[in-house]
From TrEMBL:
<keyword id="KW-0325">Glycoprotein</keyword>
<feature type="region of interest" description="Disordered">
    <location>
        <begin position="1"/>
        <end position="64"/>
    </location>
</feature>
<feature type="region of interest" description="Disordered">
    <location>
        <begin position="76"/>
        <end position="121"/>
    </location>
</feature>
<keyword id="KW-0964">Secreted</keyword>
<keyword id="KW-0732">Signal</keyword>
<feature type="compositionally biased region" description="Low complexity">
    <location>
        <begin position="1"/>
        <end position="56"/>
    </location>
</feature>
<dbReference type="InterPro" id="IPR006946">
    <property type="entry name" value="DGR2-like_dom"/>
</dbReference>
<keyword id="KW-0134">Cell wall</keyword>
<feature type="domain" description="DUF642">
    <location>
        <begin position="277"/>
        <end position="442"/>
    </location>
</feature>
<dbReference type="InterPro" id="IPR008979">
    <property type="entry name" value="Galactose-bd-like_sf"/>
</dbReference>
<protein>
    <submittedName>
        <fullName>(thale cress) hypothetical protein</fullName>
    </submittedName>
</protein>
<dbReference type="InterPro" id="IPR052437">
    <property type="entry name" value="Pectin_Meth_Modulator"/>
</dbReference>
<dbReference type="Pfam" id="PF04862">
    <property type="entry name" value="DUF642"/>
</dbReference>
<feature type="domain" description="DUF642">
    <location>
        <begin position="99"/>
        <end position="264"/>
    </location>
</feature>
Length: 467
């Protein structure tokens, strides 16, 4: 069933990348730093039906084609690349294209065994990694004062002290984009973050090819840690992946904990023939661990051209969650996006359009099946049109189709989504959650193929009436 809201609103000013992070939602966040279709004139009616002129037919939402792993933020057509291995397959090594990097889970024992005090012995104390500064190889259950240190997965993880870092050299393919997935947790109440970067192996320490500070202040999960993803384009065949604590805390025992570091080679998707949206089904994205039920957080990448979720930009301060069908309810395929933190978690894409032409934005809206407290609602934007959509629970489905009409004002149109509310799970009242979107499509609503179909059915009805 395709559900449509009663009307759409023309906005004089929509939330833009420059203002998105400063907007406020309908309720305050509990987490702060202190914290096919085709074109012919189909339209969405206020009654929830689809109408059209004599040159159109009933609208059919075609399934989105699944792509191999992707990359570029471009709508240009591309040849189909070889399919990468599924996320369940780990191919680890310094030359790995996909999977856990060598000792990315820090479970390989040093030659002298795991240290009792956690502090590594010299710059090569962690197998396959180089370290600089105070780096601790912590154990599950290890205490710091009265606090138990969190190990995201397995029995061991690494904690980085003030200005400390670990690095590993990787063999990649120049010109390709790679996504790095890692799990991280903070240990103290201070403003902790972690810097992830890549550099050429022969470059100076400060000569980074790409770099990003990931804020760890917001706890998205009651478990105290979350998986994150970040992407970079390889400018050399050999790069050094670096994780660094950029902070200088008053308490030297503070510092971020990292674990489960994996890499995934992304590929360029074909441009859909009947959809202006690239990767609208969200099937192309960062590495996900099968044994992790938290999804992967996608931090803001507003000032970057490279994205772990090809085609899409996370505009605001808070992250959105990339989810899988193994642990969440997904409308279609194996991947989708869960919107978090109200207006503070905006996902958007610029799509190719033709000025003054009518288009339809459609998408699937649903519940992730993660005990998220309702109501669930999103704001959807297409050019100067905006519409809020409330998820209505269905007896036999966890999602529904929705959409809106808009007229393009330029050759490129921004489509965007955010959650209307700040939602948390009903079982812990702390873990952030929200509505799920999937199968995002934008297409010209004046297709001749639609028109032909409509004319055929009008002819049939006339013949039946005459008989």
């Amino acid at each position: 069933m395709l559900r449509l809201a009663s009307s759409s609103t023309t906005l004089s000013s929509l939330p833009s990348p420059a203002t998105a992070s400063s907007t406020t939602s309908q309720s305050s966040s509990p987490y702060t730093a202190q914290s096919s279709s085709k074109s012919g004139s189909g339209s969405f009616s206020s009654s929830g039906s689809i109408s059209g002129s004599s040159s159109s037919t009933t609208l059919t939402l075609l399934p989105v084609r699944r792509r191999p792993e992707t990359l570029l933020l471009s709508t240009a057509a591309a040849s189909t690349p070889p399919s990468p291995p599924p996320d369940s397959e780990m191919t680890s090594a310094g030359g790995a294209t996909t999977g856990l990097v060598i000792n990315g889970d820090f479970e390989t024992s040093p030659s002298s065994g795991f240290p009792d005090d956690g502090v590594t012995d010299g710059p090569s104390g962690i197998p396959s990694w180089k370290s600089n500064g105070t780096v601790e190889l912590i154990n599950s259950g290890q205490k710091q004062g009265g606090m138990i240190l969190i190990v995201p997965q397995g029995r061991h993880a690494v904690r980085l002290g003030n200005d400390a870092e670990i690095s590993q050299d990787l063999t990649v393919e120049k010109g390709f984009v790679y996504s790095v997935t890692f799990s991280a947790a903070r240990t103290c109440a201070q403003l902790e973050s972690i810097n992830v970067s890549v550099a050429s192996v022969n470059a100076d320490a400060d000569d980074m090819l790409a770099s990003r500070n990931v804020d760890l202040q917001t706890l998205y999960s009651v478990q105290g840690w979350d998986p994150y993803a970040w992407a970079f384009e390889a400018e050399d065949d050999h790069v050094r992946l670096v994780f660094k604590n950029p902070g200088m805390e008053d308490d030297p025992t503070c510092g971020p904990i990292i674990d489960d570091i994996a890499i995934k080679k992304l590929f360029t998707p074909d441009k859909p023939k009947d959809n202006a949206v690239i990767n609208g089904d969200f099937e192309d994205g960062p590495w996900m661990f099968r044994n992790t039920s938290l999804g992967v957080l996608l931090p803001t990448n507003l000032d970057e051209e490279i994205s772990s979720l090809p085609g899409w930009t996370v505009e605001s301060n808070r992250a959105v969650r990339f989810v899988d069908s193994d642990h969440f309810s997904v409308p279609g395929g194996k991947r989708a996006v869960e919107l978090l933190s109200g207006k503070e978690g905006i996902i958007s894409q610029m799509v190719e359009t033709k000025a003054d032409k009518p288009y339809i934005l459609s998408f699937s809206l649903g519940h992730a099946g993660d005990k998220c407290k309702e109501p669930l609602a999103i704001m959807a934007f297409a050019g100067d049109q905006a519409q809020n959509f409330h998820y209505m629970a269905q007896a036999n489905s966890s999602f529904e189709k929705a959409g809106l009409n808009f007229t393009a004002k330029a050759d490129r149109t921004r489509v965007a989504f955010y959650s209307v509310y700040y939602n948390t799970r009903t079982d812990d009242m702390s873990s952030l959650c929200g509505p799920v979107i999937d199968d995002v499509r934008v297409w010209f609503s004046g297709s001749k193929r639609i028109g032909a179909g409509f004319g055929f059915w009008v002819f049939v009805l006339l013949v039946v009436g005459l008989v």
